[in-house]
């Protein structure tokens, strides 16, 4: 099913409409993630005359973001912007506090969706609709699907940028070969693999459980594969007791079945995604599989020794669940990354920010950085023409195909929901994975915050 989404007609309460597949014109769709602060005062010139910019750390993405800013500052020293990098979880807390205090940076990096809607409600970010109207190529050159999560009540409040990064089920080919098993084609086969790896003292799945949003990926796919995207759509639309859907309860039970079977690496609740420790478990062969965002490919390539170079990394979309109604082509993640403009910025800072926005992801240099250095797919129409002959061509094509061929490409739950509901979700997910709540208790707790 292909539905063309008009971002100007997309409201904040229309999660499923921007999840549904959009026809790709030589382009694709999109997807979360990353990993104290590092300062970049604009080495290319100036140092803050155009305001400030906060973004996520961890290479290779951090270096690309910093390099992009340095190029802008060198080209426009009178509008130089000061950049500061933060780890993922620290950033989420710091930006929330800064916006609440009216002290947000000029350029606000984000994920769109529910978080952006809360900033709009607080009057913290500028309406950029007229800027896009005045600069039509800024819209037409970016993937159409990326604008839905940037749109609130029919107006665009963020510039879609960077890359499409769906969530991927990674596997270690060498481990599978050594144990003598094949990659799973169903959820049931995934469960059946657990004791086979355990017997060899290998964790079936690596998981950075302390970060919580990493656990959430499992629920996103199980909800989808069992009941389809409509299950979470009901939550998003605020339907009473939506979390108690039988498909939801079954999905919650299935993930606890995996926990009880010892499917995740021992001590997963103390591992953080910001340290890339979960990726190291996969690349070192201590874990056989890992469900994570496509953004982790670049760090596994740079930090995993010869793991990627030697062809030991396998990847696939999440398999179907027996009897489930969700389309197995469906995927989850973020439909891009987003830059918003603080409404508190001065007119001089706002001009500099808009000039900076105009350079983001559309230049050949930046596209090359994302494709070659990070192994990621920029959200630019026609970018697939750059894949041919590249070392990572197969991976890039996989990401492209996963996103563009998905019947439904849904935004990560914690970004689609309001910050209040998202925090409660993450807290209860941690309890679910630690077996401190039953599936029904999880549903009851989450039903209490629907619509908040």
TrEMBL record:
Gene3D superfamilies xref list: Periplasmic binding protein-like II
Highest taxon, organism lineage: Bacteria
Protein name per its UniProtKB record: Extracellular solute-binding protein
Species this chain originates from: Kineosporia mesophila
């Amino acid at each position: 099913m292909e539905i063309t989404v008009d971002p100007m007609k997309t409201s904040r309460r229309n999660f499923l409409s921007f999840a549904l597949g959009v026809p790709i014109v030589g382009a694709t769709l999109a997807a979360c993630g990353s990993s104290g602060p590092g300062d970049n005062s604009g080495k290319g010139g100036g140092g803050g005359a155009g305001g400030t910019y906060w973004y996520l750390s961890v290479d290779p993405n951090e270096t690309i973001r910093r390099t992009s800013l340095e190029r802008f500052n060198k080209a426009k020293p009178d509008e130089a912007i000061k950049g500061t990098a933060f780890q993922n979880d620290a950033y989420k807390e710091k930006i929330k506090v800064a916006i609440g205090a009216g002290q947000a940076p000029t350029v606000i990096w984000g994920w769109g969706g529910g978080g952006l809607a809360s900033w709009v409600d607080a009057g913290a970010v500028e309406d950029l609709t007229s800027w896009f109207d005045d600069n039509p190529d800024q819209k037409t050159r970016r993937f159409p699907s990326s604008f839905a999560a940037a749109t609130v009540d029919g107006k665009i409040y963020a510039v879609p940028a960077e890359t499409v990064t769906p969530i991927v089920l990674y596997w270690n080919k060498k481990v599978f070969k050594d144990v003598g098993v094949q990659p799973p084609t169903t959820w049931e086969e995934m469960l059946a693999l657990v004791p086979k790896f355990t017997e060899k003292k290998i964790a079936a799945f690596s998981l950075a459980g302390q970060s919580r949003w990493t656990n959430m990926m499992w629920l996103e796919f199980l909800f989808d594969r069992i009941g389809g995207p409509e299950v979470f759509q009901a939550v998003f639309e605020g339907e009473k007791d939506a979390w108690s859907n039988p498909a939801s309860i079954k999905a919650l039970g299935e993930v606890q079945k995996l926990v009880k079977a010892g499917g995740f690496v021992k001590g997963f609740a103390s591992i953080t995604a910001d340290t890339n420790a979960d990726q190291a478990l996969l690349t070192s062969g201590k874990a056989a599989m890992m469900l994570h965002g496509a953004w982790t490919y670049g760090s596994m390539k740079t930090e995993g020794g010869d793991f990627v170079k030697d062809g030991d990394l396998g990847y696939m979309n999440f398999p179907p669940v027996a009897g489930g109604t969700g389309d197995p082509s469906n995927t989850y993640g973020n439909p891009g990354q987003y830059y918003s403009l603080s409404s508190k910025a001065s007119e001089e800072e706002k001009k500099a920010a808009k000039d900076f926005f105009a350079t983001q992801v559309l230049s050949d240099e930046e596209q090359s950085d994302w494709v070659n250095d990070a192994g990621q797919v920029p959200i630019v129409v026609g970018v697939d023409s750059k894949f041919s002959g590249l070392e990572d061509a197969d991976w890039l094509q996989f990401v492209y195909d996963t996103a563009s061929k998905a019947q439904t490409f849904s935004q990560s739950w914690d970004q689609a929901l309001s910050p209040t509901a998202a925090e409660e979700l993450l807290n209860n997910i941690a309890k679910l994975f630690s077996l401190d709540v039953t599936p029904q208790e999880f549903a009851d707790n989450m039903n209490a915050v629907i619509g908040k």
